[in-house]
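**Sequence, structure tokens**
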Amino acid sequence: MSNFVDYVKIHCKSGHGGAGSAHLRREKYIPKGGPDGGDGGRGGHVIMRGNAQEWTLLPLRYTRHVKAERGENGGKNQLTGAYGADVYINVPIGTIAKNEEGEIIGEIMEDGQEIIIMKGGMGGLGNEHFKSSTNQTPRYAQPGMPGEEGYVVFELKILADVGLVGFPNAGKSTLLAAVSAAKPKIADYAFTTLTPNLGIVEYRNFKSFVMADIPGIIEGAAEGKGLGHRFLRHIERNSILLFMIPADSEDHYKEYQILLNELEEYNPELIDKDIIVSISKSDLLDDELKKEIAAEFPEKLKPLFFSGVTQEGLVELKDVIWKKLHG
């Protein structure tokens, strides 16, 4: 996931509709043939399509412009012009498309789902549609309607069962590396993780669940400080939020409250999700210190202690996660 791309902006243009034909029928034995102009074809749509084989928006990173074909003009003998070819933008499940005003156009929730993000222009009507008792030979037809044009922003919110929530350097990458085959970058400084990492966590009897290491939150993330907003939106899609507070924190419960406050300010619905509180790096603690830290929290938020380095408490942590997912 080192090449994770979760935001791209593409200039999209749907096809213009073809013009209707103003042709008048002229045949050897029919000297006064009426109008027989066909309709113009519809312009091509720009369509967003879900693809379960895609995990990131990386294939679209260098796509600057997408343009659908225009519809063909109508012809004689009431011949309708061909439709312009649609153009497809393949995106991962969980991708949202927004217009330039930030309004959501659509969201891809399943493989193969298609959403028209820009409609092709309608083809113009041929002159045969305008024939009447008072106008037997109309010599005019409609032009095709123009297509739509503008920038579309594609945002990917990763889909995971468990999202890891914590300040930078809380040990999230270490945990993910310990319980899955993911290879996140790990170092002892803030903001090591600049992009979300996904890992498949194996559980008992060949079961598994998806865990997402979401980049660290800082105070003020809800106001867009640092990289805040970009990362907070990923948390919206997780079933369970695993709050991680490092053992060497100065005030464990206060740190939990700050994290919770950032989520609530960004989106109040987030705090209604299932929450598990944990203390990471617990290999630094003895039993007495663990009791003191646990006493800081209310009874319903009693933290789980684990260490991604020594593997201590990981089985119990996975048991609690699985029970919340399938309880």
Summary: The chain has two domains: 1-156, 162-326.
